[in-house]
User: Fold this.
Amino acid sequence: MIRVTLALPVFCLLAPAANLFAADAVLVGAGDIALCGSRLQGAHATAKVLDAVIEDHPDAVIFTVGDNAYRRGTAKQFQNCYEPTWGRHRDRTRPSAGNHEYKTRSAVPYFEYFGESAGPVGKGDYSYSLGSWHVIALNSVCDKVGCGEDAEQYRWLERDLEQSKSYCTVAYFHHPLFSSGKHGGEKAMKPIYRLLYKHGVEIVLAGHEHHYERFAPQDPDGRADPDKGIRQFIVGTGGREHRRIGKPKPNSEVRDRTAYGVLGLRLKSGSYDWKFLSIDGFSFTDEGSGRCH
Assistant:
């Protein structure tokens, strides 16, 4: 039995006659998800948490922050590992690719499996509206698609941010710029991060590290910036085994390497709430709220 507490304010539904929540939106997900064999049980459990969220919020959108099907992102692994778990929600999923997808040439099975939902084939960067928010999915496998100022993805992102009329924006991709985990952050993402910061993006979601971590709002150089900074979450808790967490990086507020689960965001007009939803048997949670810049 999966324990999911949705009665707290973050995901509370009001009575139909006064359903003010209808103007808000729910974005929920994680990364580092499905590995066939005995370790697939983690992905099965987190998929059941998604089931519960979708039951209460039928219009919720699911995000993934990469490494969806291990170990090489082959068509067989998507079919046999991802499909029986998170795949039942494929029609509402807006994914991003991870480095394991690119262990198969050009991540072709990833783009074939998700189709148009994964963005342009071979690129994987796209954006969409969710409630009053602007949502951006990026490809952080920088050695394959480029993340520097001269890269096509960077130029696309710059145009997208300039054209957006939304007051609030969230972006997600696989490799975090900041991390207290094994990999310690991906410096190649710094130009992208600078661009997101310049345009006032509120939230960044990432995976790659197999733990949960929340950072206080900060600038691209890791300096605390409560007024204009980006709040970054690492949600590599979709099903793969956990990894160690080292010495906390500056501005790291919450860390956990015990629980599998998903992060839920309630995207409101001018603000947002978050809550980490653990699978049954884990007591860890994290919740809070913030306002858009």
The two ends are 40 Å apart (CA to CA). The chain has one domain: 26-291.
